[in-house]
């Protein structure tokens, strides 16, 4: 019986915990690139405008204003930076 289990486990890690630890170390390169782009001047400016809007809207008790435009501006700036860096690294 032990011999059969060893044959089945051949080539696979014996401990499932070791396999899980290796998976936790993986980092999504897209998230890394997004974080780097968020530190660029244009993205910082767009994020400041978004935060200012959120503060303004949050300080009012009743308002119909939301920060959709500022959020889209920030996401557009960040994604533009990511796409620029991504396609230059592919060449």
From TrEMBL:
Membrane topology: Peripheral membrane protein
Chief location: mitochondrion
Disulfide bonds: 37-81, 53-67
Gene Ontology terms describing biological process: mitochondrial electron transport, ubiquinol to cytochrome c
Acidic residues composition-biased segments: 12-26
Region (Disordered): 1-26
Keywords: Disulfide bond, Electron transport, Membrane, Mitochondrion, Mitochondrion inner membrane, Respiratory chain, Transport
Parts forming coiled coils: none
Record-annotated Ubiquinol-cytochrome C reductase hinge domain positions: 28-91
Family affiliation: Belongs to the UQCRH/QCR6 family.
Role noted for this protein: Component of the ubiquinol-cytochrome c oxidoreductase, a multisubunit transmembrane complex that is part of the mitochondrial electron transport chain which drives oxidative phosphorylation.
Protein name listed in UniProt: Cytochrome b-c1 complex subunit 6
Origin species: Zoarces viviparus
